Amino acid sequence: MSTPPAIPEDELVERFVRASGPGGQNVNKVSTAVELRFDIAGSPSLPEHVRTRLLARRDRRITEAGVLVINAQRFRTQDRNREDARERLAAFVAFGYEVPKARVATKPTRGSKERRLGAKRERSTIKRGRATRDWD
């Protein structure tokens, strides 16, 4: 596993917008929320295998064009929201560098097959007993 490199500043697009939620007059006056955009599909700094792994994720933050959009508005200050957005981006990209472990196909043991079939037999006798009852 290779370590994720730092994403260059010129590949990030930041927009500061007004946050929603509580905060009184501060919310109406100051643009503290951060919308961070990172073009996964067109990024030259990502290796091809990482790019395909990230784009294959079914994440609602990825647009049709392959752009990751992170909205950060947890904190009251612009700087802290900016840090938060970049941390979340780093965590997202780090996920792409993790190679998934290959699944090893296994067979059920003889004991587990016998237990399953025994439980099915018991269940069927219970149900059979319900259906053919004559209540005269």
UniProtKB/TrEMBL annotation:
Q: Look up keyword Phosphoprotein and say if it applies.
A: no
Residue ranges of every copy of the Prokaryotic-type class I peptide chain release factors domain listed in the record: 18-34
Name the residue ranges with Basic and acidic residues bias: 111-136
Keyword Hydrolase attributed: yes
Could you tell me which InterPro entries the record lists for this protein?
Answer: Pep_chain_release_fac_I (IPR000352)
What keywords are annotated for this sequence in UniProt? Hydrolase
- EC numbers listed for it are 3.1.1.29
The record's annotation in Gene3D superfamilies points to:
3.30.160.20
Q: Name one GO molecular function term.
A: peptidyl-tRNA hydrolase activity
Region ranges (Disordered): 104-136
Pfam families in the record: RF-1
PANTHER family attached to this UniProt entry: PEPTIDYL-TRNA HYDROLASE ARFB
Q: Which NCBIfam families match?
A: PRK09256.1
Q: What name does this protein carry?
A: Aminoacyl-tRNA hydrolase
